[in-house]
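Tokens for chain A. Residues wanted.
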């Protein structure tokens, strides 16, 4: 699969052009992450300890904007969702992988993207985190033959949440937007309470 499939459909970029475009987008994304403070483990740790909800707000905003835009373009006939690449679902390995990823995030306070950004700014803890990441990659590579059966278990093919639940896509979009708005409101209330407690303590 091409790394920038939507862009490559607009013009003939060629392999070198796609690499340059991907590099520029990657650097730009990393710059924005750093400016947003996501290259700092303390900012990310705030999500787990309840004193900084920037990660939740940013991620929910990205999900909602992309989802509403994609499904909106589908409904007006601009985008054919059947042609949009979606990773196939292998439910059991992905559940276990999600748990491992979540534990790594909670313990190390980085995800792979934010860890790369932090490494670029010279943070030692992020370099250690990335070292563990690469050790995990190498371990997976050499153990694949032994875990291949599990890795491919629970194959559901290309499935979207509306298909899985058997409901119209609009219902799922509405539900996710409602959950996001509720999360935004709740975290703002929590922010005010924590700020009041910190003010009283000082």
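Reply:
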């Amino acid at each position: 699969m091409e790394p920038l499939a939507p862009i490559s459909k607009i013009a003939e970029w060629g392999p070198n052009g796609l690499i340059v475009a991907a590099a520029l987008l990657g650097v730009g994304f990393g710059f924005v992450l750093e400016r947003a403070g996501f290259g700092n483990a303390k900012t990310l740790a705030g999500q787990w300890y309840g004193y900084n909800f920037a990660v939740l707000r940013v991620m929910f905003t990205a999900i909602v904007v992309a989802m509403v835009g994609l499904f909106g373009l589908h409904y007006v006939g601009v985008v054919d969702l059947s042609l949009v690449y979606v990773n196939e679902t292998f439910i059991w390995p992905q559940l276990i992988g999600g748990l491992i990823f979540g534990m790594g995030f909670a313990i190390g306070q980085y995800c792979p993207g934010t860890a790369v950004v932090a490494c670029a700014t010279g943070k030692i803890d992020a370099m250690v985190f990335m070292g563990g990441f690469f050790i995990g990659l190498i371990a997976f590579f050499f153990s694949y033959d032994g875990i291949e059966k599990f890795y491919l278990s629970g194959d559901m093919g290309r499935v979207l949440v509306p298909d899985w639940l058997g409901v119209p896509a609009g219902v799922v979009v509405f539900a996710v937007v409602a959950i996001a708005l509720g999360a935004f409101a709740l975290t703002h209330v929590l922010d005010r309470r924590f700020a009041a407690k910190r003010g009283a303590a000082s």
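DSSP finds nine helices and two strands in the chain. Residues 5-201 form one domain.
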